[in-house]
Design goal:
By secondary structure, this protein is mainly beta. The chain has a single domain, classed as Methylamine Dehydrogenase, Chain H, CATH 2.130.10. Helix content is about 5%, strand content about 45%. The chain has one helix at about 5-10; strands at about 15, 25, 50-55, 55-60, 70-75, 80-85, 90-100, 100-105, 110-115, 120-125, 135, 140-145, 150-155, 160-170, 170-175, 180-185, 185-190. The strands form 4 sheets. Strands 2, 11, 12, 13, 14 and 15 form a 6-stranded mixed β-sheet that branches. Strands 3-4-5-6 form a 4-stranded antiparallel β-sheet, with no helix packed on it. Strands 7-8-9-10 form a 4-stranded antiparallel β-sheet, with no helix packed on it. The protein is globular and about 40 Å long. Mean pLDDT is about 85; it is low at about 1-25.
Length: about 190
Amino acid sequence: MEKYMGLWFILLTIFFIQANIAGVGFCSELHYEYVIVNSYPHDQKAFTQGFTFHNGFIYEGTGLYGQSSLRQVSLLDGIVLKQIDLPGEYFGEGITILNDSIYQLTWQEERGFVYELDSLVKLEEFYYSLEGWGLTTDGDLLIMSNGSHHLIFIDPITYKEKYKIEVLGESGFVVRLNELEYIKGQIFAN
């Protein structure tokens, strides 16, 4: 994972969110320097909404009604190795991997999907009463954004909210948090 950190910074415009359990995370807008170490081919028609790198593969959730999918993609050549298309009424959003499952949100349909990591076979569906935007995990809980200034921590078994935090920046609440990544105890978003 460490050797691909440059890829994260290329693909995501990020800022730092320092989240604490007390209920408010203070967002200090840090500026990172980076060096492009490589570039990789990617399907230009894919409307990327969720993205993660795991065991040498890119997992990508795409959006747009009638075009949403979950994909396993070869990093080096951009070839889609496996793809599951969502039904046309769903707009795919954020994804994350926890244990041996991939979790995928939908935007306004208040429904999420759980897939088996290796086969991408759909295992189950779950429901939530918000818009689905970004999704990540701290290794125990799912962490979801909904376009507001909240990060919602969700139990991956019951899909119930455990707690949520507000993200506060130097100029007030930080809204439209999306494409979440949890790295070494910190949450990154664009």
